[in-house]
Structure formats: C-alpha cells, structure tokens
C-alpha cells in the first residue's frame, strides 16, 4: 500500500508537471536564460580588462602606434617586464610601498584596537564624547588637510622621506578602525571580561587574552581594508615626496616616459600587470583568511 501511494504520488507529480502551462515553463526558462546572460556579461566586464592589460604588456611600441588597441601581440615581448622592473625602478618602488603599508597598517591596528577596547569595554567618564570626536575624523576629506600637513612637515624637516606618508596614513586610518573595532568589542559579552578580572587578570591581560582573540575577525577585516587603502593611495604619496628614490609603486607608474615625453606603453602595461595581479593574489590570500575567521566561530566543535 505504501509503494502504491508513493507511485501514485510520483505519477501525480509528473502529471502536474505535464499539465503545467507552457507559458509558465517559458517564463522560468526565460528567467534562467536572462540570469545566465547577466552572469556572462559581468564576467566579460570583469575579466576582459585584466586580459587586455596582460596582452598589452607584451606589445612593442610600434604595435601601440600602428595597430588598434584591441589587437593581440604578435609575440611575447618579456623585455617590457625587464624595463619596468629595472629602468623604472619598480622594485624600489615596491619596497617603499611595502614598507609604508606594513608600518602604517600595524600601527593603525595596534592603536585602533587598543583605543576601541578602552572606549567600549572600560568604563570611565567622557568616553562617549571622545568616541564621537574620533569618529568625526571620518568626515574630514584628506584633500582638505593636505596643504596644512605639507606646511607642518616642511617646517619639521620631514619632507622627502617616508615619515610624512606613514604619519598621514595612520591619522587617516585610525577613525574608521576605532569605530569598527568598537563595534566588534560591543558584541563581546561583558561577563567574559568580568570573569577575567575576578580571576586576578589585569586590564592588559583582559585585553590581550580575552579581547583580542574574540575580535580577530574584525582585525582580519580591517587588515584587508587598510592594506588596499594604503597600497592604492596616490594623492598623499605624490604630495609629500618629490624624490624618485622614495616613490611608492602608484607614483612610479607615472614615470614611464621616453624621449621627448613619449609614454612607453609596453613597460607601463607590464608594470600595471605586475601591480594588478600581485595585488589580486594578495587579496585572494587575505580574503580566504577573512572568510575563515568569519566562519570559525559558527561551527561548534
């Protein structure tokens, strides 16, 4: 009897599908086709520029001058990469960018996380007003303070060094870091910090042993945001440094000029390919760590 019921249910289901109006089937097929077309368009829009940049990095200067922009290279001209790395000092620019990015990012994360802990977990008078004052820094555009900062750095003798970049990036990244990390600390149960205190732990012990492990997801996320924000910056690095030996990698991309000011498109696209694909690899690695951190607490062991 059960077998017959199952069979009759299967027959009824098939009958319902057969009896479904053709207009409904066509509508479902049309929606599916439309979604597939939309996904294809998005993939083309995202992938084709990367492919075009990579293909252009192998062209010669004559191909840029005499052939259409969308034409493919006739051969793999790796000399463009050699020129981009050596002639344009892309290696030195990359070292400068890594130095500035790592120092600024580590300083922002340490200061921002500690400030967020003090403003959100610790109880003291005036912490709300100070938090609002710090968050207010998000509303100050960097273009508005470039000239005053340049005057201050010049009077202090800090220009033409990496120090102005690091100081500016730290001041620019702290408000957002404090705000987001305070939000992460707000979600941590206060009973955990109270238990740490009752066990004899100091405020530093509570911060390092209890607070930091519980907000590591926020630290990974802020690391991702800060890395690309500092690495891709051009206006700050271009304002405070005029020495080519101190150029960051974004500023170095502006210096691919040949005789009579002609742009060397081959080495330029080779340099752009190095920067873009290296950054893409770093993004994929960091993004995996962020995803692991976000999902680590959702699975119970």
Structure description:
This protein is mainly α and 301 residues long. It has a domain at 89-255: MetI-like fold. 75% of the residues lie in helices and 0% in strands. α2 packs across α14, α5 (90-120) runs antiparallel to α6 and α5 packs parallel to α8. It is globular, with a radius of gyration of 28 Å. Residues 5-11 and 296-301 have low confidence and may be disordered.
Sum this structure up briefly:
By secondary structure, this protein is mainly alpha-helical. It contains 14 helices and no strands.
Q: Any chance you could write out the topology, listing elements then pairs?
A:
Layout: H1 2-19, H2 22-56, H3 61-66, H4 79-87, H5 90-120, H6 127-135, H7 142-156, H8 163-186, H9 190-198, H10 203-214, H11 216-231, H12 235-240, H13 249-252, H14 265-296
Counting DSSP E segments of at least 2 residues, the number of strands comes to: 0
CATH topology of one domain: MetI-like fold
The fraction of residues in strands falls at under 5%
Largest sheet: none
Could you say which overall geometry the principal axes of the C-alpha atoms support?
Answer: globular
Q: Determine the N-to-C terminus distance.
A: 44 Å
């Amino acid at each position: 009897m059960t077998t017959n019921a199952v069979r009759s249910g299967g027959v009824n289901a098939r009958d319902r599908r057969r009896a479904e109006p053709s207009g409904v089937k066509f509508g479902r097929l049309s929606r599916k086709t439309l979604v597939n077309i939309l996904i294809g368009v998005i993939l083309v829009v995202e992938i084709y520029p990367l492919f075009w940049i990579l293909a252009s990095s192998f062209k010669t200067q004559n191909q840029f001058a005499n052939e259409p922009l969308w034409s493919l290279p006739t051969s793999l001209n790796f000399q463009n990469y050699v020129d981009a790395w050596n002639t344009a000092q892309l290696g030195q620019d990359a070292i400068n960018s890594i130095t500035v990015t790592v120092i600024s990012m580590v300083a922002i994360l340490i200061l921002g996380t500690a400030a967020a802990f003090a403003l959100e977990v610790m109880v003291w008078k005036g912490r709300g007003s100070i938090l609002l004052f710090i968050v207010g820094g998000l509303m100050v555009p960097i273009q508005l303070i470039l000239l005053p900062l340049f005057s201050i750095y010049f009077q202090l003798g800090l220009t033409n060094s990496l120090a102005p970049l690091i100081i500016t990036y730290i001041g620019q990244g702290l408000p957002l870091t404090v705000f987001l990390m305070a939000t992460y600390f707000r979600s941590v149960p206060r009973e955990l910090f109270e238990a740490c205190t009752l066990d004899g732990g100091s405020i530093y012990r509570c911060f390092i042993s209890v607070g930091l492990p519980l907000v590591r997801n926020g630290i990974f996320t802020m690391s991702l945001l800060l890395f690309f924000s500092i690495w891709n910056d051009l206006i700050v690095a271009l304002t405070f440094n005029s020495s080519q030996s101190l150029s960051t990698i974004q500023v170095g991309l502006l210096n691919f000029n040949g005789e009579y000011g002609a742009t060397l498109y081959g080495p330029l696209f080779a340099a752009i390919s190095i920067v873009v694909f290296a950054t893409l690899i770093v993004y994929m690695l960091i993004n995996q760590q962020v995803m692991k951190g976000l999902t680590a607490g959702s699975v119970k062991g």
